[in-house]
Amino acid sequence: MTHFLTVADFDSSTLNAIVENARILKYQQKSGISHRLLEGKGLAMIFEKPSNRTRIAFEMGIFQLGGYSIFLQKQDVGMGDREPIKDVARVLSRMTDVVMIRALSHHTLDEFSRYATVPVINGLSDTHHPCQAMADMVTILEKKPDHPKPIVAYVGDGNNVCRSLIEICQKMNVCIRVACPKGYEPSIRPDFLSHSPREVVDGADVVYTDVWISMGQESDCTQKMNDFKEFTVTKDLMACAKSDAIFMHCLPAIRGQEVDDEVIESSQSAVFDQAENRLHAHKAILMYLLESNLKK
User: Fold this and answer.
1) Quick one: which H or E segment has residue 263?
2) Is the preceding omega at residue 84 within 30 degrees of 0, hence cis?
3) Three-class SS state of 228
4) What's the CA gap between 51 and 222, in Å, rounded?
5) pTM higher than 0.90, yes or no?
6) Is 210 a catalytic residue?
7) Which of 120, 202, 214, 221 is nearest to 163 (CA)?
8) What is the mean pLDDT of each run of 10 residues along the chain (296 residues)?
9) Which residues fall within 8 angstroms of residue 252, CB to CB, at 6 or more apart?
10) 28 catalytic, yes or no?
11) Is 255 part of the annotated catalytic residue set?
12) Which of 29, 64, 132, 170 is catalytic?
C-alpha cells in the first residue's frame, strides 16, 4: 500500500509527475473542463488540529474529482483514547477509499498507516507537511518556469514546513538555503545553512517564511519571540533577493512578526497563489494514490 506521509518517500520522477498533474488539473478547473476522475470515491478526513486551507483543499478537491468527503474532528473519533489507532485504521479502511490525517504527532500517522488497507495522507504532523511542500513546488515552477535551478531562501524556524520544503527542493533540482537562529536548525540538512537571513536571501529567487510559534508551542512564545527578533522578512530583507523574487508563506501569517504587512501585500507576494495551489496539489496527490494503489 502506497501512502503519502513524507516527501522523502518518493523519487524525483514521481514527485515531478504529481506536480505536473496538479498543473494540468489547475488548467482544467480554470477552463471549466470537467475532470470527475474519482467518481464515487470517499475521503475520510481526521483533524486533530484546526485547519483552513487543508480542509478546504481536500473537501473541494475530492468533490471536483467526483468523490465525497467526511470531516471528523479529534473528539468525534477519540483515536488513541476512546478507540485504538489500529482499530480506527481498520474500520475506516472498510468504509472509505482514502484517509487524510492532520495529526498532533507523526507517530499517529505511522501507526495508522501500518494497519490501514487504503492510502493514508499526512495533512500535517509535528515533523512534516508534505502536502504543503507539493503546493509550494507547483507555485515555484509556476512563477519561475524558465529558471534551470531557482534559489529558495527560507527564513525562520526549522519546523515541519521547513523540513518538507528542504526534501522537495532537493528532490526537484531547486537550491534551498535556510536561515534559522541558533538552536532552531532543521533536522534535515539544506544546501546551505546560516544564522544570517541576509546571507541566505542574497540573490534568491524565492523568499519563504512561516510562523515562529506553531500550534502547540505557545508555551515557548516569550523565548522564541526574543530568539527570532532579527528574522522578520521586511522590505529591506526582500531587497537583498533578486529584483523579480517572489515572497511565499504557507499561512496563516502573523503580520509584524515573521513578515511585515508591506511584504505580504506587495506585488512580489505569491502567498494567495500558493494557497490556491493547495487545492490543485491535493487533487493530484489523491489521484496518484488511488490510481497507483489500484494497479497493485
Assistant:
1) helix 261-264
2) no
3) coil
4) 25
5) yes
6) yes
7) 214
8) 97 98 98 97 96 97 98 91 94 98 97 98 98 98 93 98 98 97 97 98 98 74 91 98 98 97 98 98 98 71
9) 52, 211
10) no
11) no
12) 132
